[in-house]
Amino acid sequence: MSDAGTAAAERAVADAHRREWAFVLAATARVAGDLDVAEECVQDAYLAALAAWARDGVPDKPGAWLTATAKRKALDVLRREKVFRSKMPLLVEPVEAAEPDEPGEDAVPDDRLRLVFTCCHPALAREAQVALTLRLVCGVATGDIARAFLVSETTMAARVTRAKKKIAAARIPYRVPEAAELPERLDAVLTVIHLLFTTGHTAPTGADLVRVDLVDRAVHLTRMLLALMPDEPEVRGLLALLLLTDARRATRADAEGRLLTLEQQDRSAWDRTAIVEGNALVLGAFRTGRVGRYALQAAIASLHAVAPSYAATDWPQIVRLYDELLKRWPSPVVALNRAVAVSMVDGPTAALAEVDALAADPRLAGYHYLPAIRADLLRRLDRPEAAAEAYRTALDLVDNDAERAFLTARLTETTR
Amino acid sequence: MAQYAVLIYSPAPADPMEITPDYLALLDRYPAQVEELGGKIVTGFALQPSTTATAIRGDLVTDGPFIEAKEVVAGFFILEAPDLDVALKIAKLNPATIDGGVEVRPLFTPPAE
């Protein structure tokens, strides 16, 4: 085999890993009836592809080739294991396992949805949902997931194994929930994806502000979900929110890695393509008349994205959107963000009263944005001592280096 | 079909003789609801109040339940259901969830040789 052939095969396998992993695993899981077996077989199939594609060339439909290969391997495993009946808690259509595999056969797109809903099942802990989604839906290696969430690989591997065991032992079904349950179950899926995004967008600890790989995974996952559930306004809302937030990626820190506030960012460097797509998605979601918290958050991000400057932003409309958001999602974090918008409409004094009222909420104890926002309001009210005090409180709570540097700089300015 | 233990937790001491008529009415309706949702109660038991329990830890024998808590096990039943989603739907309808709660736990079956 030629070097060029090997290189082409490697590229094609890497590409198929990124694009088709969920598709291949989801279809294989239905045949294998066991996520563990499916995962192993899919991994083997990708490995086999490296050699086969270098030798025979890349097939027309790499995903179908991988699926057929992985399914065949799964059937081999099941045949070897005599106990396969008892090992198939996930199996929905037992006849399917007996059907011959045809290369080029397309799996029903629903398989990927089944996989997503199983990984994000409410009977699993949130951290397990996140880990499983990255491992099984995105195909991210356990070591990489561990690094993204700053736990040891052993811990992450144990977390994934425990979750897979629970799926099998408790018989968490491999299917898309019924219409009646769908809104609640979909919300769990969207929450997991959003959590992936925010973890990447503002890495909670460590040196870099953004973990691009997690952000890209989250966007990719939402696009997949939207393609599979085009009629769900909240999926549209989430994609819009992610795109509009990420459009500011390049401007969130200066050349030295120092954090820039929304007010300081160079708006001309925002990603216009992403903003245009995000705005269209927001409109689409609002047109359905069934807006939820993601579409509302996206609408707020959209108003920021189109504003010529921080001061010239449509703040009254943003406050109204926050009011709507609070009705659907009574979270103290939302109330805190609303207070920032209030400071731009009614001034920092009004906002400070709201922030101080929120400080009593135990759910916000330890949340460094609260003292940071308080500090900023006090700074604008020309109360430097109180502002410095609040900056110090925020510094005690913050973990991300870029944010710490930002707060330290503000503290120095205030005490000068 | 899978089998689950549904453990019923009620505010201590969970005396079955003090069940309200409302609760009793809900309990009466429960078996029909279970069946309607595609499950089956294999067997079930209510327990005497937790004040009658005796705990043993090592050599130490003490009065009361194993773990002192606001809610105690009041009873349990074995539920047969096609999957966890159905089991959870059934468990959610149990009247114990109003003041206390329930825990759904799959029964262990040794792997076939």
From TrEMBL, chain B:
InterPro entries: Dimeric_a/b-barrel, YCII. Residues 58-108 form the YCII-related domain. Signal peptide: none annotated. Transmembrane segments: none annotated. Pfam families: YCII. PANTHER family: BLL7171 PROTEIN (PTHR35174:SF3), BLL7171 PROTEIN-RELATED (PTHR35174). Belongs to the YciI family. This is YCII-related domain-containing protein. The lineage of its organism: Bacteria, Bacillati, Actinomycetota, Actinomycetes, Micromonosporales.
